[in-house]
Design brief:
With 294 residues, the chain is α/β, with parallel strands linked by helices. Helices cover 35% and strands 23% of the residues. The protein has nine helices and 14 strands. A seven-stranded mixed sheet has the order 3-4-2-1-5-6-7, with helices on both faces. Helix 5 crosses helix 9, helix 6 runs parallel beside helix 7 and helix 7 packs parallel to helix 8. The longest helix is centred in the first third of the chain and has 14 residues. The protein is globular and about 55 Å long. The chain starts with 10 loop residues before the first strand and ends with a helix.
Length: 294
């Protein structure tokens, strides 16, 4: 199994005919992802050939869903149009919207995430690399060739660290890797993914990657303590970050002791999570957990 994305998923790409959309649609198709259409109201009715794989372009998400049975959309539209794109997808009744776009105004994110929640659409992102279930499907920009199928579940705020841990553990493999994004407001949280991995019979160990700023990791630690029985290994980016300065993602700002890597580490360790100081050490913790069967 996998969470949120399987080989049965049928994927639309909003913004497929743009530069980034074309590039990553080509990569998704090459990896075996079932991309069934693109969405661009100005180019509706056209077909784009990707290495002799014709992909139709629809005028709306609803039209694409009606024609193909799509249940996932990947959003590659500019920040100014992201709110409208996600709102359209939610109104069409899509099950999952993966929002790759970075630089989305926070007030837009708040609005479209609330709307999607009311409509029953799960959103991953914005400002995320998407998700991949190796050997089955990938929605977004995570490279398909850095890991194989396996029994590790990965949830991460950071795209780069998603790739790093996938590479470090490439010989073991993953059920699903989810990059939830590092903006202050995101549609799918660490806790959402922890819940899904806990329920997935083919995930044996969970890797949680966080970063300085906010309290998402502390809340995840409390949830792990009370609800997760599978072993969890963690990594927090930002042990050397200076206090009071924004670092990288918009949400990564530390004030006093709140939101520091050390505070997050302590919260996770108190919940029984092994926390690595580097990605390599984190990978070693995962291997130790698997070797011990604990």
């Amino acid at each position: 199994m996998a969470i949120h994305l399987t080989k049965e998923s049928k994927i639309l790409v909003q913004g497929m005919t743009g530069g980034e959309g074309m590039k990553h649609t080509r990569r998704m198709l090459a990896a075996g992802t079932n991309v069934v259409g693109g969405v661009n109201p100005r180019k509706a009715g056209r077909t784009v050939d990707f290495h002799d794989r014709p992909v139709p372009v629809f005028g709306s998400v609803a039209e694409g869903m009606d024609a193909t049975g799509a249940d996932v959309t990947v959003v590659f539209v500019p920040p100014a149009f992201t709110k409208a794109a996600v709102t359209e997808a939610a109104d069409a009744g899509i099950g999952l919207a993966v929002v790759i776009t970075e630089g989305v105004p926070v007030h837009d994110s708040v609005a479209f995430l609330a709307h999607a929640r009311r409509r029953g659409t799960r959103v991953i992102g914005p400002n995320c690399p998407g998700l991949i279930s190796p050997g089955q499907s990938g929605a977004g920009i995570i490279p398909a060739d850095i890991a194989k199928p396996g029994r590790i579940g990965l949830v991460s705020k950071s795209g780069t660290l998603t790739y790093q841990l996938m590479y470090e553990l490439r010989d073991i493999g993953f059920s699903t890797c989810v990059g939830i994004g590092g903006d202050p407001v995101v549609g799918t949280t660490h806790i959402d993914c922890l819940t899904a991995f806990q329920e997935d019979p083919e995930t044996d160990v969970i890797v949680l990657i966080g970063e300085i700023g906010g309290d998402a990791e502390e809340r995840a630690a409390a949830y792990i303590r009370d609800h997760v029985t599978k072993p969890v290994v963690g990594y927090i980016a930002g042990f050397t970050a200076p206090e009071g300065r924004t670092m990288g993602h918009a949400g990564a700002i530390v004030s006093g002791s709140s939101g520091t890597a050390r505070a997050k580490q302590q919260a996770l360790e108190a919940a029984g999570v092994r926390v690595g100081r580097t990605p390599t050490e984190t990978a070693r913790h995962v291997l130790a957990v698997l070797d011990s069967g604990a």
